[in-house]
Structures are given as structure tokens and as C-alpha cells.
Amino acid sequence: xxxxxxxxxxxxxxxxxxxxxxxxxxxxxxxxxxxxxxxxxxxxxxxxxxxxxxxxxxxxxxxxxxxxxxxxxxxxxxxxxxxxxxxxxxxxxxxxxxxxxxxxxxxxxxxxxxxxxxxxxxxxxxxxxxxxxxxxxxxxxxxxxxxxxxxxxxxxxxxxxxxxxxxxxxxxxxxxxxxxxxxxxxxxxxxxxxxxxxxxxxxxxxxxxxxxxxxxxxxxxxxxxxxxxxxxxxxxxxxxxxxxxxxxxxxxxxxxxxxxxxxxxxxxxxxxxxxxxxxxxxxxxxxxxxxxxxxxxxxxxxxxxxxxxxxxxxxxxxxxxxxxxxxxxxxxxxxxxxxxxxxxxxxxxxxxxxxxxxxxxxxxxxxxxxxxxxxxxxxxxxxxxxxxxxxxxxxxxxxxx
Length: 401
What we know:
This protein is of the alpha/beta class. Helix content is 45%, strand content 14%.
């Protein structure tokens, strides 16, 4: 992948939990190939699998690096000793290009997963400059068009790839979570109550994720402003960090919501994060950008219902008032739905219980599904392709002919 720890995003977590669970098997090993982190961060990999890192350079202000696998001789020498059966690209940029080419060179199959609405990213990053957007779309589609198997995380993502011009077969492998409903739930709730003086507080909402305006955060803030006019008795916990965090704090202040919103910051302690899910009554997720965010699945692990935007990709598996809640994409509609939901605590509880049954999915389940698909892809590839010969063997064959 083109980005990895210490940067954290959805695809980073997906690839990590794929690797952890597959590597824990007796019949497989799974390693990660990513760019080196910025030297000044002094980051040291501590994963239960090998992490191969290639040289990298600065890419974006958000901290992403661009890998240089084609020109890193030490990296190529180290990786040459590894016998691989299949390679899986979780991003379509430089590392994605390298993956499909390296797999082809080795005579093994490659897989590419689409996690993101790339075109929206390019339009935003290049301020709508059509030639640059066109060029970047052509660039990333090389990875998908040259992979032996293309995966997405839900059905809506399939249509996005079709809109980008991909015409091949697409396999859906849905995401999961490492979190499970804890035995010490009350203890974790108490930790959060004490940290933020929430004992006895009603209507505690939560948002978990990257603090970026493309997550529709302004809509959520405007909705809470509407809600505050009628009901001042609520708190919103914002868990996460991002390049728009400072600006979003200003938005909250300007809307007069400072007393209602608590910026928790990024939480790396997964057990503590569970306490925040457990303490909350409703998860607010207004994003239409995400294709299949992991956080609604994490919420479902804790029987916490989620309010999403109707017809968004992440809402694909949600049935309104059954295993989640849906609202139209306006501040007014979002605020109205919040008021309706908190007015019926028993219904909230039942919806959360159903989400735990129908939305919750563990990474163990996902990895087992992926592993079986890997075996099928390898078998089909080997049946239809001859193994590449060495340079010496090719020269001998040329001389013989």
C-alpha cells in the first residue's frame, strides 16, 4: 500500500488486520510492503508480521509518503529472497503499479482492492482542474485494469468502479472490526464518565474518524445547532484528529456549540475507545465520502446504533429503524432524525441490538473469506499461466531454436 503507520486510515487498518489474521494461520504467512515513514518520526514497526519498506518522498500535506520501489535497490534485493504466491494492492498509486508489475514478473496473480472515491479526492485536491483529474484517473485505473482480480468493500463501490470505466469482474469482500463487546463494559464507561464529567448525562452522541470537512462535518454541526434551539441537553464526543481539526473547532465555536462538543482527540488505546462507544447513545456519521467506513462496524460491535445519510455507500447494509437510522442529506433532516431517535430510547436499544447481529463482522471472518479467495485465484492462475523461466533458461531456449 502507498501509506502505512504511523499514518492511520481505514485502508491501513484493513491491510493490517488481513495480515495479522492470515499470518496467524499454520498454513500461511502474510507480509506488508509499504513506503518508509518520515525519518524525523523515528517510527519503528512492531507488527506480528514482516514489514518491507521502500524509499519514499514527501507526497501531501496530510503526511502521506510516495513510495519509490522501482528505484530502491536495497529493497528489491531484500524482497528478491521472498517466495510469494500472490500479491494484493490496497491502493492504486505507485505501490499499486509496482504490485501488478512485480506479480507479473514473478508469474503470480495480483489482487487490487478499491477502498476510496478517488475521483472526488482528485477534484478536491486539484480544485477541479479537469486535465489533472483525467490524468490521475488514468493513472490509478492502470492498477485495476492490470490486476488479475479486483475487489471492493460493498456493492455501491462496484458501481463507483464501473463509473470510472472498469469493465471486468468485481469481487465484494466486506470489512470487519477487531473489537468485541467487552466483559468490563461498566468499568470502561466509568473511565469515560470521569474523564469528561458525563455521569448522568443524557443524549451523548459520538463521531469517530478523520477530522476533515469532506466527511460532511459542517452538516453535522449545522444539525446540532438546530437541535440546540429545542434541546440543549446533549453532548457530542468527537474522537479523532485530522488536517481540518483546528478549523472545525472554530466552526463549533461560531455556531455556539462549544458547551455541547468535546474534542477527545485521537485514541490509540483500543480498549479505551470501546469505552467511548459504550458510553454513547447514538453514533452520528454524516459522511457520504466513505465507501465502507470501519467505524459503524465498530459501533455495531458495542450495540450502538448509527445515524447515516440515506443512499450513502456506508449505509448500504442499513435498514432504517431496523439495524440503523437514515436521514436525508440536509442539516434540517439530520436534526429531525436525531430528535426522533432520542425520543424513543427503547427503540434505540433494539436497533443497536439488531446492528450487533446483522452489521457486526470480525476481521477473523473477513480474513478467512479472503484467504479462501486467494487460494481460488492462485489455483485458477496456475492453471491458465505457465511459470516464467529464468534469463539463462530463456537464452538456452533461444540458442536451441
